[in-house]
Specification:
The protein has helices spanning 16-26, 55-67, 97-109, 130-143; strands spanning 2-11, 33-38, 44-53, 71-76, 82-92, 113-117, 122-128, 148-152, 156-159. It is of the alpha+beta class and 166 residues long. Strands 5, 6, 7, 8 and 9 form a five-stranded antiparallel β-sheet that branches. Strands 2-3-1-4 form a four-stranded antiparallel β-sheet, with helices on one face.
Length: 166
């Protein structure tokens, strides 16, 4: 089993997302991450999907997607250089002054954005790779036990021009 990434160009129409997601659930494939957004062509959307599967199952997934009428193009990102990031929000609640000072230090060291705060709460935005975001989650959860709320979006990816950054 291996983590796989796939990008789809699809028709930007009502029901396409549900149909693609249904294709995965109908075959009992678990989507670990799915993001979708409009491209420069308003009639086309781009999906970035992550699944964990073996080689045979992944080939079946790609073939099924290629057969779908709404799918314009399928790109397998698994073994090509890409740039990939995901957005992560970390909210720390019931902060003391010392907690907030520590959070601001962490934000500075790791190049995170403090996007909102008040007397008792701090909201951090982290746009990094999935692995680095996992490390940030672990750090904050260890430092601020039971006071951390996590909201993360799926990864987006684009083919690399010169370097690989997963």
């Amino acid at each position: 089993m291996k983590k796989r990434w796939i990008s789809l160009y699809v028709e930007n129409e009502v029901g396409v997302l549900a149909k693609i997601a249904g294709l995965f659930s109908g075959k009992s494939y678990n989507l670990e991450s799915l993001t979708v957004g409009e491209t420069q062509d308003k009639t086309v959307s781009r999906m970035t999907i992550s699944v964990t599967s073996d080689d045979r199952t992944f080939e079946q997934i790609k073939k099924q997607l290629n057969r779908s009428v709404e799918v314009i193009k399928v790109i397998d990102f698994t073994n090509i250089p890409i740039h990939m990031k995901e957005i992560l929000y970390i909210k720390v609640t019931n902060c003391t002054t010392q907690d907030k000072e520590e959070i601001f230090r962490i934000a500075q060291v790791f190049h995170l954005n403090v996007v909102d705060y008040d007397k008792k709460n701090v909201l951090i935005e982290c746009i990094k790779t999935e692995a680095k975001n996992n490390e940030m989650i672990e750090l904050f959860q260890n430092l601020f036990l039971n006071r951390v709320e996590i909201v993360r979006g799926g990864s987006v990816a684009v083919e690399s021009i010169s370097v690989n950054e997963r």
